[in-house]
Structures are given as C-alpha cells and as structure tokens.
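debug: dumping io for the single-chain case to check the tokenizer round-trip. Nothing else runs in this session.
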Amino acid sequence: MDLNSIWFLLVGVLIAGYAVLDGFDLGIGSLYYLLGKTESEKQLLHASIGPFWNGNEVWLLTGGGAIFAAFPLVYATVFSGFYLAMMLVLFGLIMRAAAVEFRNQIEDETWHKWFDIIFFAGSFLPALLFGVAMGNIAGGIPLDSTHRYTGGFFGLLNPYALLLGVLGLFAFLAQGSTYAVLKHEGTLQERAARLASSISWIWLLLFIIASVVTYIFKPGLWSNYFSYPMLYVVPLLAFIGIAAAPLLLKNGYRDAAFPATSLGMLGMIGTLGAGLYPNLVPANNPAYSLTIYNASSSPLTLKAMLIIALIGVPIVLLYTIWMYWIFRGPVKIDEAGY
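debug: decoded output
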C-alpha cells in the first residue's frame, strides 16, 4: 500500500471516528424535543453529552487538518465550492456549543427556551448537511479542468444528495437515540428505546433504497465491488449493525444497541469509501476528478505528516477512551447540568 492510499485510509478513519462520536451529540440535539419532555429530562440530556461533545469535535478538526496536509487540492476545491454550506455547518456547530455551555448558567425559563431552540437547530442543521455533502461527493460535482467547482449552492441540493442527506440524518438520529438508551434510566430510557427502534428500521430502509438508487444511477460507485467481491463485507457489516439495533432493543439487550448503530455508521462510511477509491472528489467529467494521486501533497510531505499522525492519533484515541471510561454508566439526576 502506497503513501497516498494510507492517507486515504487515515482520513477515512478520522471521518468515521467523528461520525460515530459526535454523531450521538448531533442525534441527541436533533431529537431533543422528542426525548426531553420535562426540565429535568432536558438537563439530563445535556449532562449526558456535557463531558464529551468538545472532545468529539477534535476528530472533525483533525480530519480537516489531515485533508489540508495530505490532499490540499481537495481541501481547496471542497471548501471553496461548498463554502455557504460549510459556513452553515460551522454556524450550527458554534451555536450548539454556545447552547451546551450557557443553557444552565441561569435559572430562567425564557433563557432555557431560547437555548433549547439553538441547541436543536445547531444539531439538526449539521446532521442533515453533513449527509448532503457526502451525497454530492458520492454523486459527483461539476468541476472544470482546473478542478474548480462550477456549480451553485442550490445545485448541491439535488435529489441524490438529499437522499443521502436524509440517510445520514437518520444515522445520526439512531446514534443519538441509542446513546440516550445507554446513558439514561426510567421514563427517558423507555422513550429513547422506542424512538431508537423506529429510527433504526427507517435508517435500514433508507440504506437499502440509497444502495439501489446508487446501483441504478451511480454505477461507478459499485465498480470496486465488482472487481473485488470481498469488499461486499463492508456494506454487509453496515446492514448487520443497523438491523441488529432494533432487534437488540426488542430482546432486552439495550446496552448493545449503541455499539450496533456505531457498527452501522462505520460500515456505511466504509461502504462509501470503498466505492470512491481512488477518487476523493469525483467530477461529472471523470477526467477532472480529484484522486489520491493528482490531489496529494508531495511524497516528502505525506511521509512527514504520517509520522506526526502515527504519534498524534493514538494520543487522541487514548484520551478519548480514558474520557469515556471515566464518565461511563448512566447519568444521575444529581449530576444534571453542565
């Protein structure tokens, strides 16, 4: 495996890590009004993500930095072409952070009400737009011979991208609802379990529909699977993880539902990555596509950055494991607030 392929895999790992970890944050926020019916339940929801949300976003920053270092042309093309969409995502994440930090600082109903709205909107918007962005990458975007995006903002809202956007949204919702099952007890857990079961079945249906639509309208994404049939293991893992979640909940294995949806999320991202390789940003005209070779940094840069990544990523991983171990177990009512 060459350096370019290693960096493709590493960027994929960082993106997948972010989707799994910050996915439950975004899912909790997007389901906020369906999960939290009372003030104490809303405080419990905030408490359940309070120790983790900012650490989870390190994976997004690291992934963005990795793309910038290893594939600068991809960074330039995507961030300039998707500029407005990216700004909306960042605005949502910033407002969500403000809501988590400030909601419980003042005991005032109006104050809580406004920050609840901000928390929901700042979670729902990125959860949807992340999937739309992946849908555009998967479906191909209009690039010219200099690899510049030639479309507009509304061109990003095409049917295929919106389908994958809704698919990604339900993946985040499943992460959030199963995480709520894992971290809460009593009425809140029961409510989360019912939501998680329904959401997971819808997610599975959307995954099947998206796979069929891709096969019909974007057959290029299946080329690697036809050439290397062993790759079918990846979407199979996604299918197993998604389908297992509601079955585990039904049979009383509630603590296992969150790992199951996490497997589904990893499998879904892996399915897309395996289909894209060696492309990073497919163009409508394949001759203009950005690949791991024509969009990469120099071999010296890739080698130097790989050494840094091999030191830094394990540190981030160990810190993440330690943090989740320290704050393991259900959130208690006397721990509410942040």
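debug: round-trip ok. The chain is about 75% helix and 0% strand.
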